[in-house]
Amino acid sequence: MKLIQTKIPDVVLIEPTVFEDERGWFMESFNEQRFYQELTRLGLPIPRPFVQDNHSCSKKGVLRGLHYQLPPHAQGKLVRVTQGAAFDVAVDIRTDSATFGQWVSAELNSKNKHMLWIPEGFAHGFVALEDNTQFQYKTTDFYDKECERAIKWNDVELAINWPVIEELLVSEKDSAAESFSTIDVF
């Protein structure tokens, strides 16, 4: 497994080691010991243990986010796409961070098998680039409705460069999310 820091160094792209032959392929989708060793090698903190796994399936053009949870139930997320493709985004909402208000993105898909580590203190969202995009992620805390928050996906201040898709499908809840300038932050 290779961890690559993004332009926001706390958000890390993970390239797993994939073994392929004429039968197909094999990879470790998660190895706690290696994950922690690689984070330590990069000088990054070890997250709390993962306590919940989530799995969603989206049609092409479905946009989910930008979601986050406030403390004491803030969530770090280890995200990946097991079928299809997604444009994945993390936004730094830590007020004491040098990268506050900045965002990073990565294309995660079933071919590249990349994952993204998004620590606590970030809002997260994605848009499905293909039908039947299966998105799976681990979280460092349980879902808590009282701590749940969202930022409007197309906030002008954030200016996220989402891919052009003919028809975006956004839930009412996500469409009614707050602007970045008014959110509850860390």
TrEMBL record:
Pathway note: Carbohydrate biosynthesis; dTDP-L-rhamnose biosynthesis
Listed name of the protein: dTDP-4-dehydrorhamnose 3,5-epimerase
Reported function: Catalyzes the epimerization of the C3' and C5'positions of dTDP-6-deoxy-D-xylo-4-hexulose, forming dTDP-6-deoxy-L-lyxo-4-hexulose.
Gene Ontology molecular function: any one: dTDP-4-dehydrorhamnose 3,5-epimerase activity
One Pfam family hit: dTDP_sugar_isom
Recorded catalytic activity of this chain's protein: dTDP-4-dehydro-6-deoxy-alpha-D-glucose = dTDP-4-dehydro-beta-L-rhamnose
Superkingdom: Bacteria
